[in-house]
Amino acid sequence: MLRRYTVILSILYFVVLQGTATAALSTVRVLVLPFTIHADQDLSYLKTDIPKVIGEHLESEGAVLLEINDAQKNEVATQSSNVDALRQMGLDVGADSVIWGSMTRIGNHISLDTNLVETMGGKPVQSVYEAATGMESLRMVTQKTAEKLARQLFHRELITHVRIEGNRRIESDAIERVIRTKAGDILRVGELSNDLKNIHKMGYFDDIRVEAEDTDGGKAIVFHVKEKPTIRRISFSGNQVFKDEELRENMTISTGSILNIFTIKSNIEQLQIMYKEKNYHNIKISYAVHDLENNQADIEFVIEEGEKIKIKTITFQGNTTFSDKKLKKWISTSEKGFWSWLTSSGELNREDLSQDVQRLMAFYHTTGFIHAKVADPIVDFEDKWIYITFKIDEGERFKVGTMDVDGDLIHSKDRLMPALGIVKEPFFNQETVRKDVLALTDIYEDAGYAYVEIVPLTKEHPDTHLVDITYRINKHSKVYFESINISGNTRTRDKVIRRELRIHEQALYSGRELKRSVRNLHRLDYFEDIKVDTPRGGSDDTMDVNIEVVEKPTGNFTFGAGYSTVDKLFVTGSITEKNLFGRGQIIKLSGQVGGTSDLYNLSFTEPWMFDIPLRGTANIYRTRREYDTYDKTSMGGGGGVSYRIFDYTWLGLSYRYDVTTLDDIDDNASDNIKDLKGKHDTSAITTTLSYDSRDKVFNTTEGQDHRLSYTFAGLGSDIGYHKIVGELGWYIPVYKGLVSFLHGEAGHVEERSGYILPDYEKFYLGGMNSLRGFDFQDVNIKTTNSDGEDSEEGGEKYVQFNFELTYPLLKDIGIVGVIFYDTGNVFAPDESIALGTLRHCAGYGLRWYSPIGPIRIEAGHILDPKEGENSHANWEFTMGAAF
Predict the structure, then answer these.
(1) Of 322, 414, 541, 559, which sits 20 to 30 A from 548 (CA to CA)?
(2) Where are the alpha helices (DSSP H) in 587-680?
């Protein structure tokens, strides 16, 4: 292309425009004489100004200007009509041509009469006339005159029109927009050369030619173009990491577009970026163009992916206080490890690497190194490995010197100082100082000082390596809530939102209560977004609270299937409305049909009875479950109320009436089960005290879940017992997503005199939610029934302890790994709870909150197997949930 383009320019210079090029090679010497001025006012300065403008233009075009002496200039006015005398004047100074003329002004009309004559030969005088209205037009008139004189002096031709030929798909208008040559311009080779380059830069043409045709009055310029082919098909070869469709989605070219080499190269760069983001840094991509008929072509991208390279080593330079191993714990980037195929260790992520610099800086600044600096990491690619180096300038390490608070104190220093965490730090810690500012701010905000300013002032002592800290407080004035405005709620009633707020109009400002109010609104799960603005009120000591909500659908329909080792294959579905009629009421109809159980339930909840935090519930249900030795069918319903007595703490009272039928009883069932064959009703009242501050129900990361309940059964029924169950649970974040779970529970059930305690109200352990090394209900009381058959019964007492560690393996999709230890046992009425007899198991598993519900796959091993028990892994699997 470059060779063809050069030939075109050569032809342009030496053939098409030969006459023009030749003329441009010779030097034209010009004498521009003073002009004669005809005007009814003094405009004598124009005698030299007009020739000066004309001369500057001609000089810019390549002419050489010559001068005459002052005496000769004075003769010009008297010789203006003597052409021979003016020729001679030009010959005297060596000029090729002489220019003279006059300017005339009559009223507001101006005109310029200019003459040009060659000093040699007998060619006649050539005249140029230009006119306009207003003196402000004089410069324009003079420029036009100069352009016409230049055309005559250099024998340049005028372009009569410009034409584009050969284009089919590309509009002529698009090409003309990049061409500077226009009709009416003087023909210049340099401009045409630039136009060819501009058309070439468009990238749409394989060949570009320009011709000049003779026409009346000048030259017609014709640009001949040959368009590049269109792309019929785009294909890839050698790609394994990405599918063809993934590559196409990240390209700007497509079938039917024009084959543009610049665009192809740009797309190759984009594909290389895709591969490098996956750590294929040795990627090589080339392309081949396969020409077809009808000006079409296929493009094939040839990809050499190379091997995926990972980080071999991460080293630190300049770290004298902390080891490389210690510093690696504070960065996200890691070296390739044994589990890299699962955990993606060793992957290079430029964004993470950049943030690692800030993480290291933050670590040093929290350990006393106030002036520590970390340079941008050096990344070296060698063969199949990546080597990363962090350069660190630790500086001096500072301890905490004296500490103080001053300014506007609302409490004594003795009361404020315990709120400062920096007191416990051995070295100066910027993060702790920041938390101290927040802690002091919370204290003042809770006292109504919404606009408190707290500035930590530090004074360094380089000689002793101590830093004194003074927290300076400017409390400003107390602030009161003036008005609370709610907007955006088209369905949810105002009172449903306001009852979740812990702030009130005209009350003293409290930052903690404002934050809690927003959190409560989020926990409702009625809104996609909640925005809170706190502008000043009508005075400096008041504040408005504007709460803007964006509602979302609160109705939900689910349908799915699941499997568990207890219920086998099952189908589940539910219809739920969490904000019925915008009142915050909850109604839910759910069901599950499976191989060993059927479950149906209809429930209704009113969260704020009588506009107080008194939750009322009612439900009816029917369940059927096949146990090992009998089938149990229950129908019933109940209702209850619970009252929030503290944050996250509820006290509840409920009533349940249940009719249970036992049938299909095996011979080896316990005597208790055999005696209960047929129908029995249960009338029971339960009181519950619960505390639940978990951040989420499944894959919890922090919070507590405690529960204590007491059930009294036997209100007009033949089933009667006392049952008490206590449960404690703590979720404790450990480190970088690692969460520990400590759980314990215990229960006791006792038959009431004159009543029946059914076996299904006793306690069994074993299975997914208790001791995971045992099958469902495998931990029980072994006994012999009246027929001499070995049978199993539930215990009347039990204890259970669980310890778990969970860690996110694939955080983006919510897959969590878990290891666990379970222990517990059930006990007969005449037995005491003996911790030495507890059964033990441990195991591991995966959890995933999938779109169809929670999925758990866990394997438990019995650590103390007895005769007949299997010490191998007991795998359990559950998927989906009904209610």
Answers:
(1) 541
(2) 671-675
For 567-607, where are the E strands, in sequence order? 568-580, 585-594, 597-606
Give the three-class secondary structure for 551: strand
| Domain 555-879 fold | Porin (2.40.160)
* CATH number, span 2-12+158-227: 3.10.20.310
Going by CATH, does the domain composed of 230-304 fall within 3.90.870.10? no
CB 241 within 8 A of CB 275: yes
DSSP 777-800: T-BSEEEE-TTS-EEEE-BSEEEE
Strand pairing class (614-626; 631-646): antiparallel
CATH architecture of the domain covering 310-393: Roll (3.10)
Please, are residues 239 and 207 in contact by the beta-carbon 8 Å criterion? no
CATH fold, domain 480-551, is Ubiquitin-like (UB roll) (3.10.20)
214-225 confidence digits (pLDDT tens): 888 788 999 999
Token pair for 145: 């005159």
Cβ atoms of 456 and 428 within 8 Å: the answer is no
Q: Contact, 741 vs 703, CB < 8 A?
A: no
pTM for the predicted model, two decimal places: 0.55
Angle between helices 46-60 and 138-153 (to 10 degrees): 50
Cβ-in-10-Å burial (0-12, 13-18, 19+) of 472 comes to middle
Q: What is the 3-state secondary structure (H, E, C) of 295-323?
A: CEEEEEEEEECCCCCEEEEEEEECCCCCC
Q: Which amino acid is at 415?
A: R
Q: How far is CA 873 from the centre of its chain?
A: 42
From the number of C-beta atoms within 10 Å of its C-beta (0-12, 13-18, 19+), residue 488 rates as middle
Per-position DSSP letters for 109-162, written without gaps between them: EEEEEEEEEESSS-PPPEEEEEEEESGGGHHHHHHHHHHHHHHHHTTPPBEEEE
Give residue-wise pLDDT tens across range 731-751: 999 988 899 999 999 999 999
Q: Look at residue 568 in the predicted model and tell me its pLDDT.
A: 64
Instruction: State the CB neighbour count (10 A cutoff) for residue 301.
Output: 21
Give Cα 44 distance to the centre of its chain.
Answer: 73
C-alpha distances in angstroms, 243 versus 54, 240, 266, 282? 69, 7, 20, 19
Structure tokens at 258: 């024009």
Residue range 660-708, pLDDT digits in tens: 999 988 888 888 888 888 899 999 999 999 999 887 777 788 999 999 9
End-to-end CA distance of the chain: 73
Reference 692, options 650, 726, 636, 656; nearest CA is 650
Q: Which residues pair with 801 in a beta bridge?
A: 744, 823
Query: Residues 692, 704: contact at Cβ < 8 Å?
Result: yes
Q: Are 444 and 419 in contact (CB under 8 A)?
A: no
The reply to whether 230-304 and 310-393 are identical in fold is: yes
**What integer best gives the mean pLDDT of the chain?**
87
Which of the residues in the chain have pLDDT under 70? 1-26, 155, 189-190, 339-344, 558-568, 570, 851-853, 879-883
C-alpha triplet 454, 457, 459: angle, nearest 5°: 170
Radius of gyration, CA atoms only, the chain: 46
